[in-house]
Amino acid sequence: MTTADQALPVRPLWPAAKDVFFISIERMLPRPRSFWVFALLALPVFFGVLLRIYPPKDLPLTGFELDGIVVALFFIRNLLPLVALLFGSALISDAVDSKTLTYFLTRPISRLSIFLGEFMAYLVTVLTLTVPCVVLTYLVLCVGTPQGTGFGATDLVQDLGACALTLFTYGGVFALLGVSLKRPLIPGLLFLFVWEGFVANFPGDAPNYTLTAYARSLIRHRPSEEGLAELFSKFFPVGESVLVLGIVGVVSLALAIWIFSRREYVISS
Amino acid sequence: MNRSRRLILTAAAISVLGVGLAFSTRLTGTARAAVGPVPPEALALPADSSVVMGFDVKALTGSQFYAKFGGEGEPGRVDALAEIERKTGLNPERDIDSVVIAIRAAAAAAASEPKATGPRHHGPENALIFVTGRFDAARLESSLPEAGKAQKERRDGVTIYREASGKSNGAVALLDAGILVAGDAASVETFLANRSTGHGIRDSQALVAQLESIEPGSTFWAVGGPSVLSRVTSEVGGPAGNLPAVKQVVAYGHLDPEVGMTATAQAADAKSATKIADVLRGFSAMLSLQSGQRAELAQIADSISVATEDEKVHVKATITHELIESLKKSAMAAHARKAEVEIH
After folding, report:
1. What is the ipTM of this complex?
2. A3 vs chain B: nearest CA distance in angstroms?
3. Cα dist. A157→A45, A247, B35, B339 in Å?
4. Which residue in B2, B10, B32, B132 has the most chain A C-beta atoms within 10 A of its own C-beta, making it the best mutation to test that interface?
5. 0.80 cut: is pTM over it?
6. Could you state, in order of their start, the residue ranges of all structural domains in chain B?
7. Cβ separation of B21 and A149 shorter than 8 Å?
């Protein structure tokens, strides 16, 4: 029997996933892409400060409501899916480019561990970038208002949960796209801005087939819609929204893991 | 991992400090922590309210008591919920979590005036009703009765629906998703003004003290000042009409597994408190004396306990669902006998 025939024992799932996580987080978090994404996520904080310094006359919204709009429209509707696309679709391709996948695949660890470790690193990275911005936006818009900072404290926690669930679900979907397609960015953008952007606002049952309609339903302190949006916007109960987003996220992840486990990666020099 | 760890720790610290700051101001802030069973959002209800009462609608509609006695004409039917359903179209069982009702001194006084002075308003017509639940603008607009006749106005982030047919002066203001206030237009305006200036219930120390004495988790509760209590005693008449003046009453209770209620009335002095307690004990003794005709009355008398403590009178009552069922059957039998006599 040669040494090549002597297979090393495969490491247990979670310790191996943890090792992958520690290596991957170093690859994902402290890099220019994260900095620019953070700058984008911090825009509401910047504009919130401006708004507080130069408050416009007759603003028909309270700070708390403005925070609801920012979270629902800026974070949940637009930016978090984009962040998930940037990081989630590149989950494995970045590992290929940086050669860490070569390293992982030659170690005695399962592909499931590799994928879970990468996805945990993705979640921690995007939450590290997002959560402070959501919290700071709330503080900037609500501190010193007649309603007070404590008025929406529970909603703030719920908003953070909604953001985390949005990042998880879209992350799962785009990770699936990333392992299925060679160039997932264009289809991902089309999915976000054509399917999610338009169909979610169609009348009838069309919004039932978009993720964003469920994600925006999690933000309960948004003001009532007006005009066309009032006519067409569809909102779901919170329980149903959490269930749908959770199921879509888990199913997408399972499919992504299944594809990743069976795919052959040719590592070029 | 060092760079990543620093970044993660910094982000976590900012987030935890921010959320902590939000919650700490909720707990220690001057205006926005809950007062007893009144949620922070309802603290803009007027400080000069004579009566503030509330229901945990979720607990009420989910109770065995409501399942048995919550129907039309039943003892568990809550008129205030029917009134909310009439005004907003919201289904209490499906859409509403809690209700707080405030009746102002002026409204209560107007209601206590003799009928000759004008049309008599019933309580809920004069009340400012604060509702929390599972509804948003879309659901509210679809359920508002005669929605087409409601004028909609957006102001300071609040959507206000006014009755536009001219039949009444009612208004419903949707403050946020799941929070609305309904009442006559002037009262709703007062609430909104209080909300933007930070005024409200907290301006009255007496009201705050009363509300904070309510047992947490009560299904229903009420606190009242002297103006309404004098009206009640004068309307009841008989021995109650001669009761000494009561400064305030705090009452709360639960519905399952039996109906339990605790009430504390504060009289002007200890002598007055004793007199009130004596009247109540006398009432209980009268019920016991009638037990020969109706056995349930003795059980009711046994379930009521009265005690005094300085100028306070404490009354506790616990009535089983079986006893209420029995009383209901007796009342129906008596009603049937009366109808039979009238036919003959």
Report:
1. 0.84
2. 33
3. 17, 22, 22, 60
4. B32
5. no
6. 44-203, 206-343
7. yes
